UniProtKB/TrEMBL annotation:
UniProt domain DUF4352: residue ranges: 91-206
Superkingdom per UniProt: Bacteria
Biased composition (Polar residues): 54-76
Name of the protein in question: DUF4352 domain-containing protein
Length: 217
């Protein structure tokens, strides 16, 4: 009497499928973060209120004394402050806690989509806290109210909006960039600047041009 050999049960592919789904979700989240930051930079760079003389800036148009990114004016509106101290312009305060000059390794470790800085340049990260001190109960949007630069010793300005990459704790990671009175936000700004130079961090009002500077010693 012969017996039929029962078919060998197929191995379940459920575990592999779950792993593939989880990996896809993780990659999707990373892509969303990159796209969000790049979209904000593109919005800043293409804002109709941006002056054509400062490519990548989101500042509103105001009188300019030069047709380049070189700024020859002195910052007389508010005295410079040191790292770790609070600087202030109308309606806003800023505190630069620390900075990192060559941050490529940390950026690529945090986000595989980041690339090293171009030859002769540094990825420079600024860790800062912004506080809105104005009285508008609906809040003010720091993306459009403020400009951020690193300024070299000759006065040339480098905007965060021109940097190529995403900071690990990007200040603009969220599309909600509005602060209500007394509220603060902490994060990082990325700048691409020539290496082996000294820089000053500048926060500037897009409306009035009032500014405060923090030398990066």
């Amino acid at each position: 009497m012969s017996y039929m050999t029962p078919p060998t049960p197929k191995k379940s592919s459920g575990g592999k499928t779950l792993i593939i789904v989880l990996v896809a979700i993780l990659v999707g989240l990373v892509l969303i973060g990159v796209i969000a930051t790049m979209s904000i930079k593109a919005l800043s760079a293409s804002s109709p209120t941006s002056p054509s003389t400062n490519q990548g800036s989101h500042s509103q148009e105001r009188p300019n004394t030069t047709d380049t990114n070189r700024d020859t004016s002195a910052s007389e509106d508010t005295p410079p402050v040191s790292i770790g101290k609070e600087g202030e312009i109308t309606d806003w305060k800023v505190n630069v806690a620390t900075y990192t000059r060559e941050a490529s390794a940390a950026m690529m470790k945090d986000n595989s989509f980041n690339d090293p800085a171009p030859a002769g340049m540094d990825h420079t990260l600024i860790d800062l806290t912004l506080t809105y001190t104005g009285s508008n109960q609906e809040g003010e949007d720091f993306l459009f109210e403020l400009d951020f630069y690193l300024v070299d010793e000759s006065g040339k300005k480098y905007s965060w909006a021109d940097a190529d990459g995403v900071a690990p704790d990007d200040l603009f990671a969220s599309f909600d960039t509005s602060l209500k009175p007394g509220k603060s936000v902490t994060g990082q700004l990325l700048f691409d600047v020539p290496e082996n130079s000294s820089y000053t961090f500048r926060m500037e009002s897009s409306d009035t041009g009032q500014k405060v500077e923090i030398p990066l010693n």
